[in-house]
Structures are given as C-alpha cells and as structure tokens.
C-alpha cells in the first residue's frame, strides 16, 4: 500500500468518496423533504432548479426510451464498481501515486455508488438541476462528468506517453496481477 503523511492512499480516497456520497445524499434528502414542489431560476432561463424523480434509472435509458428495468441497472452498477476497484487496485499496485488518476477514480466511484444508492433507496434518481432544452441532472452526474473530463484531459496531455505503452505487456501484467490477487 502506498503511504503518505501517515495515512495510506486507499484510506484517503475512501474518505473523499464517502464525503462526496454523503453530500449528494444529504442534498437529495433536503430537497425531497423541503423543495420537491419548488422551481426557480439559478442562472437566467438557462439553468433552473426543477426537482423530479427519474425512474428510467439512467440517462441513456431516458434518452432512448429503452424500457430497461431496475434490476439490470443495479447489476450494471455493481459490475462497474467491481471493475473500477480491480483497475484502481492494479494501478495502485503497479505505479506510484498519481493525483490526477486518483481524482478521476474518486469522482467516478463516488458517482457510481451514488447511482447505485439512487436505484436501491430512491427508486430512481432525484434530479434537480435542469439545463434548458437538454436534461435534468444531479450532483452524482456532475461527479461522473468530472471524471470523464479528467480522463479526456489525461488522455490528451499524455497522448505521446500512452502511445509508447505496449498493450501486450500491460495486458500480461494485468492478467498476472489478477491471478496473483484474486485466483
């Protein structure tokens, strides 16, 4: 385990993930108890506070009107979390601490856990920020979007270094890691 200032990396990341989850859920509880029937402008007519429970369970399901139910969404969330934890553990075992990658995983895991909580305890996502002409979203969606932006910038600014990676060696190292750690 990588240690820094007496606290290990995993404990720091877990604390931040839990903090982000608590903030997301506290906001939803407050809105649910006090503001469900309120609508008001946040930034002119473009961004509004407009709470609603999204029972389509995902943005893609809402957009495409696919009718995918709750159980497949819960299974997908759990699978994504499992894969994220395996990849994060591999990165921690393989490489020294990288703050950018750490933040990417912090936001992505926090957003994914919040999404799972929404499905299990809210029966959908309590979305409350309306972007005129597009969609309604919540803080969890912001967490996931931040991770996507960080990933894109990481890819752009490290493109030359990433191109030098040998995928066969990386795959072999990952396969060895999986065998040693999980099998």
How would you describe this structure to a colleague?
There is one protein chain. The protein is of the alpha+beta class. The chain has one domain. The chain has 7 helices and 6 strands. It has helices spanning 9-34, 59-64, 70-94, 99-122, 139-157, 159-163, 167-182, and strands spanning 3-4, 7-8, 40-43, 47-54, 125-131, 135-137. A 4-stranded antiparallel β-sheet has the order 3-4-5-6. Strands 1-2 form a two-stranded antiparallel sheet. A hairpin with a 2-residue loop joins strand 1 and strand 2. Helix 1 (9-34) packs parallel to helix 4 (99-122) and helix 4 (99-122) runs antiparallel to helix 5. The chain is elongated. The model is unreliable at 1-6 (pLDDT under 50).
Write a concise synopsis of the structure shown:
The protein contains 7 helices and 6 strands, in the order ββαββαααββααα.
Architecture blueprint of SSEs:
Blueprint lengths: L2 E2 L2 E2 H26 L5 E4 L3 E8 L4 H6 L5 H25 L4 H24 L2 E7 L3 E3 L1 H19 L1 H5 L3 H16 L1
Antiparallel strand pairs: 1-2, 3-4, 4-5, 5-6
Helix pairs in contact: 1-4, 3-4, 4-5
């Amino acid at each position: 385990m990588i240690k820094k200032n007496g606290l290990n990396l995993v404990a720091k990341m877990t604390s931040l993930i839990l903090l982000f989850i608590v903030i997301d859920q506290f906001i939803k509880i407050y809105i649910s108890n006090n503001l469900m029937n309120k609508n008001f402008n946040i930034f002119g007519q473009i961004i509004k506070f407009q709470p609603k429970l999204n029972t389509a369970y995902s943005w893609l399901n809402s957009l495409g009107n696919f009718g995918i139910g709750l159980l497949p969404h819960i299974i997908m969330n759990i699978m994504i979390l499992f894969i994220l934890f395996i990849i994060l553990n591999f990165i921690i075992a393989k490489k020294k601490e990288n703050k950018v990658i750490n933040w990417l995983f912090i936001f992505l895991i926090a957003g994914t856990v919040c999404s799972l909580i929404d499905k299990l305890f809210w029966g959908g996502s309590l979305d409350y920020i309306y972007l005129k002409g597009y969609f309604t979203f919540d803080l969890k969606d912001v967490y996931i979007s931040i991770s996507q932006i960080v990933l894109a910038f990481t890819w752009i600014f490290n493109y030359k270094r990433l191109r030098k990676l040998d995928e066969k060696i990386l795959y072999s190292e990952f396969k060895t890691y999986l065998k040693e750690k999980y099998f």
